[in-house]
Amino acid sequence: MNGSSAADSSDPSVWISVDAMGGEGGATAIIGGMAMSAAKNPEIGFILHGDENVFGPLLQKKPELSARTRLKAVTKVISMDEKPARALRQGKGTSMWNALESVEQGEATVAVSCGNTGALMALSMLRLRRAPGVDRPAIAVLWPSRNPSGYNVVLDVGADIRADASDLLKFAIMGATYARHGLELKRPRVGLLNVGTEEHKGRSELHDAARMIEEASVTGDFEYIGFVEGSDISSAGVDLVVTDGFAGNIALKTAEGTASLVRELLGNAFNHSPFSKLGALFALTSLRRLQKRIDPRRVNGGVFLGLNGTVIKSHGSADATGVSAAIKLAFKLAKNGFSDRVAARLASDIATGHSGPEEKEPPEANRA
Amino acid sequence: MNGSSAADSSDPSVWISVDAMGGEGGATAIIGGMAMSAAKNPEIGFILHGDENVFGPLLQKKPELSARTRLKAVTKVISMDEKPARALRQGKGTSMWNALESVEQGEATVAVSCGNTGALMALSMLRLRRAPGVDRPAIAVLWPSRNPSGYNVVLDVGADIRADASDLLKFAIMGATYARHGLELKRPRVGLLNVGTEEHKGRSELHDAARMIEEASVTGDFEYIGFVEGSDISSAGVDLVVTDGFAGNIALKTAEGTASLVRELLGNAFNHSPFSKLGALFALTSLRRLQKRIDPRRVNGGVFLGLNGTVIKSHGSADATGVSAAIKLAFKLAKNGFSDRVAARLASDIATGHSGPEEKEPPEANRA
Description:
homodimer; alpha/beta; Isopropylmalate Dehydrogenase; eleven-stranded mixed beta sheet; phosphate:acyl-[acyl carrier protein] acyltransferase activity (chains A, B); phospholipid metabolism (chains A, B); cytoplasm (chains A, B); lipid metabolism (chains A, B); Phosphate acyltransferase (chains A, B)
């Protein structure tokens, strides 16, 4: 339950900082998810930022998990409906703030939070700062697809509602690095989300972005395949879909809503008659496999890209399975030195001048 | 096969003008869909704009359909990848142009086309002109939902990639009229698509639009329920979702892609083993009911709103079932005097001044 006991009983190689207070799933979901991950992976250690009175007793019941968890007591919490601006002013000393500080100070490699997305991004930018060359960080998710890995990468799904051509270029570069490491692809195929695949479609910033991304692909270890449509996000013809946070957020939530409607209608269909119930029984294993494939809890974890450090946003209503999926992703990225690799790619892009004359001047603070 | 023979054998009360040349499904899909609708509904008459050498022989094989179809020979066609600007310059005398002209001249009440969406909207605006008070026409679709009718209305899904607050207000007014007639709802609940339901979320034009729509709801026979997210589009908590054509198009195609992926995975799940195949057999009726519910062909038909006349865009790759669904919708709207009702609503909105000071000045030509 503290650093020394963790060192005594095991030797975690990757420390993950967990904001245990922000989500809707409560302490049970957090501790349950941590315990699931700990049981599967002996390399993970946790720095847990949560209420001692709640998490202390829960950890005592799980000695294995307790042995590699350092509980850092905190009582202040940022609520799910807190505005980002207020979180910035009053966030100091909250579980979210402290979870990010653990990454900033090098105690942990990755932070995981189920809290308020806007506040988490605002505090992440404040504590970890944007990586050199990045104006707007982005949130990337894994999206169920027809590709062999089962997933594509999509970003930005809601870090910011705006993105200009230069931001979209950075999203492509950062997202390609994520696809290389998260999906183990040597040369990800990058598409730019638009209302049609024809070159003349869409707003002018998309045309500028298309040109810039195509240029950067030459040295960027990715392939630019042009505009893609909403129906292509899950296709096997693309690995990474780049868009602004407004369209990306709407696409993501629309897909979640559609999958949930189809699941519900499917359930109704099987419950309709004794015959269909019998059918469901015979097909049970196959249906479970399908359910697993499209279960949003199993791909839980939006990755914040473009910061000096890795932050993972788990779904606010994640249960233990969802929290465990976010921790698994955090471990994978930490193990790969993901944050440094993204930074190296961005630096190389700036060095080769692909950001071009259209790049905005980042704030001075960000250059330092 | 011409006007006199139609009058001889039956007396259609609603004439639908069909552009038979633009789609990818070919003549078989068009004639097949017309025949399906004709068999079900004796009130429909068709004005068919297509190649005489192709459609003449096809009609001869279907005497019932032929008896209430006037074939108007045309050979020029606008291709699926034609740019709207070029379609405007060179569209005269094409099947699409002539199909719209039939509505303009009062020979038909509604036009149906499977052709190029951008060209169809451009030519519709040229031939039918925008309704008074409308800057940007919109495309509305029926979206599978948890509501009793099974559907919600969503607009704009791609008529234009831009929309300001005043355009979004008009979309709400026109869409509410569509929901009243298309879904038979007395007082549709209107939501504005955003990246979150909290009032502070999203771009400033969305905040302006929210205020304007709320004001207009007082006399507009609809209820404004606030911002909705992508996951709410299929919910039972809203009847009409208003958005700009960029986000709406991406949401629509993302939903189509997601539903298609889930269908494919479901098919794979049932084909996996002898047990699952047996399961599928037992659940066959129920699965067919589900398939019917989420089959995009059955809700085929985007309605162009904001023109002096009704135009329905059927999916480019629609088969006979899809074409027939578009014709059914065309009939329903024509029968209701839909176009006049939308115009009356817009006029009443302008009269009560809800468009407010923020409304842009429509072009002079549009006032005439």
